[in-house]
Design brief:
The protein is built from one helix and seven strands, in the order H-E-E-E-E-E-E-E. It has 105 residues and is mainly beta. The chain has one domain: Sandwich (Immunoglobulin-like). The radius of gyration is 17 Å and the shape is globular. About 14% of the residues have low confidence.
């Protein structure tokens, strides 16, 4: 019984939520969040917290578990001030074992 109670407390107190992760970018007040891989497609949200329009190319690099780059892609992102939208990189190598680097150009 003590093991079950301890396990419940560990689960409840562990602040692990993939969807709450916020990734900074090379542009102030622009973040990437809710990154998830579904059927070989990388879904994510770009949030523009600034008061100026955003019209840039977003580059993503996918890294494997050894931190070696295994794929990349680019997408034009257009957002108004203080807004956000969901985007997808289609047919990109992705999985739970991969990590991602986003940057604007």
């Amino acid at each position: 019984m003590k093991i079950a109670v301890t396990l419940v407390w560990i689960v409840l107190l562990t602040p692990v939520n993939v969807f709450a992760e916020r990734l900074t970018t090379n542009i102030d007040d622009v973040i990437i969040k809710n990154v998830e891989c579904k059927s070989g497609n990388l879904w994510f949200v770009v949030s523009n917290k600034s008061t100026v329009n955003l019209s840039k190319t977003l580059l993503v690099t996918v890294f494997d578990s050894d931190s070696d780059p295994v794929d990349n892609g680019s997408k034009n992102i257009v957002l108004g001030p203080v807004s956000g939208d969901r985007y997808t990189f289609w047919d990109l190598t992705c999985s739970d074992e991969h990590s991602y680097a986003f940057r604007f150009q």
